[in-house]
Amino acid sequence: MNTTPYQRAPWLRTHSWPVLTAAAVLLTGCGAAQASGGSTPQAHTASSSVQLGRVTVAGKSEKVLENSSGYTLYYFTKDTASKSACTGACAAIWHPLLTKSGSVSAPKGLSGTLAVVKDSHGSQVAYNGHLLYLYSGDHHSGEAKGQGILNEWWVATPSLSQLGSSSSTGNGGGYGY
To answer: Residue 150: helix, strand or coil by DSSP?
Structure first.
């Protein structure tokens, strides 16, 4: 009897997008250089604001940073405060949050620092030294499907520690606390 992949592995029905995305990242290499002659991946240009929102992360409602359209923002643990380690195929999946204005406004109640860093993507928005990204697997505002992918991508929360502090990455589940 012939069976479909969904019958052999029912979890694929609900989890196929993150699994396939993770596989694509692994196969292409998250920091891989783009082949010559290729086009630059489409990056998302932000309006000049970042806002606070709530999403469910690991079964718990969390306050997170979002773009002006309500999409969850993430950071990558391999980045430095001034250089993105996500280029080429990686940037096609994890879209850098860019701004044309050269500045970004913070929502009321956000205690950390928003900044604009000029890097290989252009003018990329950063929070507490962490460059910010949108995940292509989040198809609707309020989703956080990129949380924990490869144990290197984490939802950006208001409590995210300054990059370089001892708690900015690692055992805090990516939250920096």
So the answer is: helix
Integer angstrom CA distances of residue 5 from 27, 34, 94: 21, 32, 27
Structural domain contains residue 166: no
Number of structural domains in the chain: 1
Please give the average per-residue pLDDT across 58-62, as a whole number: 93
Question: Would residue 140 count as lying in a domain?
Answer: yes
CA 48 – CA 104 distance, rounded (Å): 4
Which amino acid does the sequence have at 66?
Answer: E
pLDDT, tens digit (0-9, with 9 covering 90-100), for 122-160: 999 999 999 999 999 999 999 999 999 999 999 999 999
The whole domain housing 62 covers 15-29+42-155
Q: Are strands 44-46 and 94-99 parallel, antiparallel or unpaired?
A: parallel
Q: Is residue 74 assigned to a domain?
A: yes
With respect to residue 55, please indicate whether it lies within any of the assigned structural domains. Answer: yes
The tens digit of pLDDT for each residue in 1-10 reads 555 554 555 5
